[in-house]
Specification:
Elements: H1 4-14, E1 19-27, E2 30-37, H2 38-55, E3 68-71, H3 78-89, E4 92-95, H4 101-105
Parallel strand pairs: 3-4
Antiparallel strand pairs: 1-2
Helix pairs in contact: 1-2, 2-3
């Protein structure tokens, strides 16, 4: 079984125009939809992974477990990008909201 990050990277390279998501965009006349491709998803995850390496630190290969990165924000296309970036860097992600009190108590 291939890792999820490899599948997304392959789709980003082989099927550059394949649509991953549609996001709402407010314009002057109302609401429209914008396509987000697998290529854009892969690029966003790579940029975020690079940022994490630079600002949080790289996970060494000697068994270090990585840091927990907590996301507190809107549930849109950003959380999946963060998940891909943490998978690529070896860090962990926790999603925080009022519904995840268990996470807060056990950090």
């Amino acid at each position: 079984m291939r890792p999820f990050t490899e599948i997304v990277d392959a789709l980003a390279k082989e099927e550059t125009q394949r649509i991953w998501a549609k996001v709402p965009v407010a314009d002057g006349e109302g609401l429209s939809w914008r396509d987000v491709t697998y290529r854009q998803l892969g690029a966003a995850a790579d940029i975020m992974a690079h940022w994490m390496d630079q600002h949080i630190g790289q996970v060494d290969q000697a068994g270090h477990q990585g840091n927990v990165v907590t996301y507190m924000g809107v549930h849109d296309i950003r959380p999946p990008i963060l998940v891909l970036a943490t998978l690529k860097t070896g860090h962990k992600v926790g999603f925080s909201s009022c519904k995840t009190l268990y996470l807060h108590r056990n950090l």
